[in-house]
Amino acid sequence: MQETLTVVLAGGIGSRLSPLTDHRAKPAVPFGGKYRIIDFTLTNCLHSGLRRILVLTQYKSHSLQKHLRDGWSIFNPELGEYITAVPPQMRKGGKWYEGTADAIFHNLWLLSRSDAKYVVVLSGDHIYKMDYAAMLEEHIANQAKLTIACMDVPRNEASIFGVVCTDDNAKITEFIEKPLDPPAMITQPERSLVSMGVYIFNMDVLQEALVDDSEREHSSHDFGKDVIPELIKTNAVFAYNFYGDKGRVAKDCYWRDVGTLDSYYQANMDLLEPVPPMNIYQKNWAIRTYEPQFPPARTVSSATGNEGIFINSMIANGVVNSGGSVQHSIISSNVRINDSATIVDSIIFDDVEIGEGCQLVNCIIDKHVRVPPYTQIGVDPVQDKKRFHVSEKGIIVVPESYHFTN
């Protein structure tokens, strides 16, 4: 792994996650009560032995960079280890990153200063566990120029991904970005093989491909749309089977692109399943994050005698439930729940206070919100749409620092 440089793409706008991304980058959005989305990718790097990591930031990056500083300043630069946030340097002119490939092209000078032989390119906005070391071993064994991590999905869901066709030896013969009619797998006609956005390049191949793409007219400078289809024509490009992962991670094979409010909400709710589809309790693959120093969560009897209760929920440190009822919900740090308040099927971010007698159902409450007593959210759809953003599946989102009026 000493010959490997990792680049994490973390500059996307994440507009489909608005209003959660109105004041933060998508990889910095809280997840699972105590984590940030990017923690899952960085944890994979940590456990896989990848210790030289560039995080390419761009839009609304302050929250993300603060999180990297507070939670991920763990490597030793004297040993050549680092996690470094790299905002746009404007070295190719006064332009922002214009695509996934363009983001790395703008930072080729950093790649050229590295003595790395391989480059692992990752997205900072996916939820999954994966041992990249096992994928790198297979990349080297195949003498590949590029290896793409892939998984199979139902064919009718594949049109939102880059779809891959391979031969019997897992060599990729075709890559089609978001096709309207996705090609099926030969062995499973109802399923398609899709890219997970996890790439391992030989350094020289990546550098040459990015320079060629920068000179190509009408390119969108995107790996899936432009760079990878061109590389397949002349190079050995292989698929790595995520479901057959040979690494040390638990074989739950869970991967989610939490690009919409509904997919984000569902991925959080997945953690509350009796047997969660992703095991975040694997002892040798602990998900690392920054966590403020709060006291343990507790329940308190209210002045009226109501007991604070939690049912099938995840509760972070610093939470005080004084006579409220929380069911099938995720409660982040430093949340106060007052007498007779009920919270059901909801996600509450840090530093929120839920007033007495409130009813919250199917909602996401962002940070620093004070919900007044007896407020109802998720009970009256007409009133909810007048005040808040409501997702396609009816999840109500209260934005950060929202101020309620009568």
Automatic annotation (TrEMBL):
Q: Which family does it belong to?
A: Belongs to the bacterial/plant glucose-1-phosphate adenylyltransferase family.
Q: Which residues cross the membrane?
A: none
GO MF annotations for this entry? Answer: ATP binding; glucose-1-phosphate adenylyltransferase activity
- A Pfam family reported for this protein in Swiss-Prot or TrEMBL: NTP_transferase
Quote the EC number. 2.7.7.27
Protein residues bound to alpha-D-glucose 1-phosphate: 97, 162, 177-178, 195
The biological pathway it contributes to is: Glycan biosynthesis; glycogen biosynthesis
Q: Which reaction does it catalyse?
A: alpha-D-glucose 1-phosphate + ATP + H(+) = ADP-alpha-D-glucose + diphosphate
The annotated subunit structure for this chain is: Homotetramer.
Source organism of the structure = Vibrio ruber (strain DSM 16370 / JCM 11486 / BCRC 17186 / CECT 7878 / LMG 23124 / VR1)
Q: What is this protein called?
A: Glucose-1-phosphate adenylyltransferase
